[in-house]
Design goal:
single chain, two-stranded antiparallel ribbon, 8-stranded parallel sheet, TIM Barrel, alpha/beta, about 290 residues, 10 strands
Length: about 290
């Protein structure tokens, strides 16, 4: 943990997570996925399908989201699903297709890793690992990712406290990798009108409490494409660092989470609505 600008861990800081605590970098810091920086002036959009379904599908999606304003491509190859009968992803074949699409669109990619055994095969083929909500407490995986230098997006568990979220980040940082982006993706609550409840206050708190960039996942948090733009505008206004949105060119036939996917046209309209909000709070959208 000898990064330039880092302050030594102070015995005066009473915290369980000293490596990710704000006192290490009082001004905050940026974490880059490829050439895309999170935590600076830009509000960064990550977009793509929930799952890689074919080479044609992910390449088409990559080119679309690039042209519509996204800076990072997402696509799942390993899919942890509630039902064992749901589409589980294409595995390493999907990783290869994602990488090919990423290179063609000249934009970095992020995808979920589910097991320690897959890290070695995935690491040279992706630009960032994603730790999903169901694996936030997979401590063996957190430790193994901590031994890599690859950026990692750590999603909050849907039943986890803010303290538990930051302690999961501390596991990764304790292994030597503090290239961590926190992602608030919604937590379970008593309401069934939305898929989950986006804890915007919690995301803002995490941004203040840590030196790490913090983004939101409004697709999983709401499950409702029609309110994703409003949630994303709120994240911009709140001073957060980006959003990850699911897009599919034909959501009705998507193999995973089609109900929450935006169409390219909807994503375009949302992107256009973010500019004025970003300008009003001193942020900007990447060109």
């Amino acid at each position: 943990m000898s990064e330039a600008g880092a302050k030594p861990i102070s015995s005066n800081v009473d915290t369980e997570y000293p490596l990710v605590h704000r006192s290490r970098f009082p001004e905050g810091r940026t974490v880059s996925i490829g050439n895309v920086a999170f935590g600076g002036e830009d509000f960064v959009l990550i977009a793509g399908p929930c799952a890689v379904e074919s080479g044609d599908q992910i390449e088409k999606a990559a080119l679309e989201v690039r042209d519509l304003g996204a800076s990072v491509l997402r696509g799942g190859a390993f899919k942890p699903r509630t039902s064992p009968y749901s589409f589980q992803g294409m595995g390493l074949e999907g990783i290869e297709l994602l990488r090919r699409a990423s290179l063609r669109a000249e934009m970095p990619c992020v995808t979920e890793v589910m097991s320690v055994e897959d890290i070695e095969d995935m690491e040279p083929r992706i630009d960032a690992f994603q730790i999903g909500t169901r694996n936030m407490h997979n401590f063996a995986l957190l430790k193994a990712i901590g031994e890599t230098k690859k950026p990692v997006m750590l999603k909050r568990g849907f039943g986890s406290t803010l303290r538990e979220w930051l302690l999961a980040a501390e596991y990764i940082a304790n292994g030597g990798n503090d290239n961590i982006i926190l992602c608030e993706r919604g937590i379970r609550s008593f309401s069934g009108e939305t898929r989950f409840t986006l804890d915007l206050a919690g995301a803002i708190w995490a941004k203040e409490e840590t030196h790490l960039p913090v983004i939101v996942d409004p697709s999983h948090a709401t499950g409702l494409p029609k309110i994703i733009p409003a949630i994303t505008r709120a994240a911009v206004a709140a001073g957060l660092d980006g959003a990850m949105v699911e897009i599919h060119h034909n959501p009705e036939v998507a193999l995973s989470d089609g109900d929450q996917a935006m169409t390219p046209a909807e994503f375009k309209a949302m992107h256009q609505s973010l500019g004025p909000v970003a300008a009003a709070v001193g942020r900007k959208l990447p060109k």
